[in-house]
Design goal:
mainly alpha
């Protein structure tokens, strides 16, 4: 549950500089570290819940309807499992410290930053966006959309811009994308059920 702002405490500078450091510190200070989320059930929230389950640490989720970045910069929340594009400029400017990326492989935009999985085997959480169409859209229209999108992702300039902000576009056939959605839904459904997460 979120904690009232009046009880928040700023931990500055935050002592952990690596994932192992963070886990050690969090276990020594259970329930004292605020974790920003983009709302209950958001990928940002679930990534943190998965981390807590896999490491045994206890963090305090603080759910935001607007940007959590100002409170991160002020030290009012100490951790966020944020999409890279949301915080990469603050990381590059030295205003936020990147302990790790949540993806299965290191990011080309922050190659020096390790993955959480390097310290917590099996951990992986990625925010993704996809293009979908109404259920009864004709197959030929779906096929045409797929080809056009695939062509865009073949453009070096577009791919360079994605890489600059830390995004990693991936082309999937419609069938592969349907399979991916089903698998991801099952993965996060387990986290939601295990942690009894309910929408407001």
């Amino acid at each position: 549950m979120p904690v009232p702002r009046s009880s928040w405490r700023s931990i500055r500078p935050f002592p952990a500089k690596t994932v192992p450091d963070f886990i050690t510190y969090a276990k020594a200070n259970p329930g004292k570290i605020n974790m920003a989320t983009a709302g209950i059930g958001s990928t940002v929230h679930l990534a943190g819940e998965l981390f807590m389950t896999m490491t045994g640490v206890r963090l305090v989720p603080v759910h935001y309807r607007t940007s959590y970045v100002p409170d991160m910069l002020a030290g009012q929340v100490q951790l966020v499992f944020s999409p890279i594009p949301t915080t990469i400029e603050q990381v590059r400017a030295g205003k936020l410290r990147a302990l790790a990326v949540t993806s299965g492989t290191r990011s080309q935009a922050l190659p020096e930053v390790p993955t959480i999985g390097e310290f917590v085997p099996g951990y992986e959480a990625s925010v993704w966006n996809g293009v979908v169409a109404p259920k009864n859209t004709p197959a030929e229209i779906i096929g045409k959309l797929y080809k056009e999108i695939d062509a865009v992702l073949a453009d070096p300039k577009i791919m360079a811009r994605f890489a600059e902000v830390g995004s990693v576009p991936k082309s999937m056939t419609p069938a592969d994308f349907c399979k991916f959605i089903a698998e991801d839904t099952e993965k996060w459904g387990k986290v939601i059920r295990a942690d009894n997460i309910k929408a407001e």
